[in-house]
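Appendix C reproduces, verbatim, an entry submitted by the partner laboratory led by Prof. M.T., so that reviewers can inspect both the input and the predicted structure.
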Amino acid sequence: MTSLTLTSQQRESLEQTGAIYIGDTDGFLTDAEWEELEELCFQSHLPYETVTVGDANEPNLVEVGRFMTDVEQPRKVNAEVTDRLLQIIAQPARMRMLGELLNCKEVYLRRAQVNHMHRGSFVGMHLDTDSNPDYQVSIVLQIGRAFSGGEFAISLPDGTETLIEPKFRSTIISRCDYPHEVRTVTQGTRTSIVYFVASHDGPNRRYLKAS
């Protein structure tokens, strides 16, 4: 990938395997942007909480630092750090690329967080659309340098699965309407920034339905 464009093969991969995998050298982020994101995750004193149950009541064991939440509607938290993050991940050319991928005139970043996963950590099988039915893709930016386990597994409609072993500074763009999980980390620390994109920027319809 160059100049923030996607190939036809990558588009087909999202449709057929549920995900696009972009390596460090393929240009989704620059070296300077990756370095800035590492600083935000490791040196910004972002508060973390341990999450053991996800939005879909799936079992989790992960430390989460929040940039944007999306309970009733998108809301910045830890604003100073979040503003620095959004300058990178919500850069207009990057959002246009995601809009083209989803065939949407406008797309919006609704939720963003960083996940620290140590030995024994995992994220259970779930649907991102259970958090918000409008979520279309999630983007996972791998910051962790050295870890084992922690594979990203997607359950496909035909009963097969896509299994991705993310490498340092890789990017995964995955469909939010396919069940997926992060398998148990067996060694080291798997740190990733995760954010969610939708074509709807209003209130979270999950919240509206429940209220």
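Residues 8-210 form a domain with the Jelly Rolls fold (CATH 2.60.120.620). Additional entries are available on request from the coordinating office.
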